[in-house]
Amino acid sequence: MRRVSLVLLGTVAFSIVSAGIASAADLPPRPTPLPAVAPVVVPVFTWSGCYIGAHGGYGFGTKKFTNVQGDDFTDHDVTGGVAGGQVGCNIQTGVFVFGVEGDASWAGLKGDSPVADVSTTPLLQPGKYNSKVEALGTIAAKFGFAVDRALLYGKVGGAFALDKHWVTLDSDGSTLVSTSSYSRWGWMAGAGAEYAFTPNWSIKAEYNYLGLGKKSPDFCDASGANCATGISISQNIHVVKAGINFRFGGR
């Protein structure tokens, strides 16, 4: 009897173990863990770097003519287009941007004003003082405040203009006397906004004021032998322009 019981107990134990093995075989396989994926690091945009670009716009200003006695005897406005290029470098520290920039522009600013009793031989005839600004340029320190890809900035530095003047007679339009093209230097201040639409390319809009002081060029006739001296010409110019820049090594 005892032997029968042991056999029965062994049979039950074997059945339980076999059932457990069968159940384990029916379980789905343990999923394989996915490989770790490195986080994507997005580069932080910076305005640091050097750049080159082009611009176009419009300029306007006033010229005042002063005689030997210091009296203003005529003045006129000059207006016209400008087009040129710029080059510079920036360094960004936090939200602040510092840099230096130089630009040069072809200019077509023209104007004139009447002047009475232009001396001719043997008559006195009315005529006009004519002016043309042929080129403009600046070199300036730049400082700004950046919000990601947007930059607001100011500029201050030196400026130059290439000028020419001549006097024409109303009677036949001929030139009585003229100056050679000459350069004049002064100071500038400006402000602008720039936006980088890619890591390397940006667009900008800018205003500059150029204070170019007084200059006393010689007005000479066609032969160059007879020249009038002592006429001082003061000048200020406003320039509004839009441009595009390519920045090297942008990210």
List strands and helices in order, with pairings.
Layout: H1 2-26, E1 49-66, E2 72-93, E3 96-119, E4 124-147, E5 150-169, E6 175-178, E7 182-196, E8 201-215, E9 219-220, E10 227-228, E11 232-247
Antiparallel strand pairs: 1-2, 1-11, 2-3, 3-4, 4-5, 5-6, 5-7, 7-8, 8-11, 9-10
Structure, described:
This protein is mostly beta strands and 251 residues long. The protein has a single domain (49-247), classed as Porin (Beta Barrel), CATH 2.40.160. The protein is 10% helix and 65% strand. It is built from 1 helix and 11 strands, in the order H-E-E-E-E-E-E-E-E-E-E-E. The strands form 2 sheets. The chain has an 8-stranded antiparallel beta barrel. The chain has a two-stranded antiparallel sheet with strand order 9-10. Strand 5 (150-169) and strand 6 (175-178) form a beta hairpin. It is elongated, with a radius of gyration of 40 Å. Residues 1-9 have low confidence and may be disordered.
Strand order of the largest sheet: 1-2-3-4-5-7-8-11
Pattern of helices and strands: HEEEEEEEEEEE
Mean pLDDT: 85
Largest sheet: 8 strands, antiparallel, barrel
CA-CA gap between termini: 90 Å
CATH class, anyone? Mainly Beta
Brief overview, please?
The protein has about 250 residues and is mainly beta. About 10% of the residues lie in helices and about 65% in strands.
Features:
single chain, 251 residues, mainly beta, Porin, 1 helix, 11 strands, 65% strand, disordered N terminus
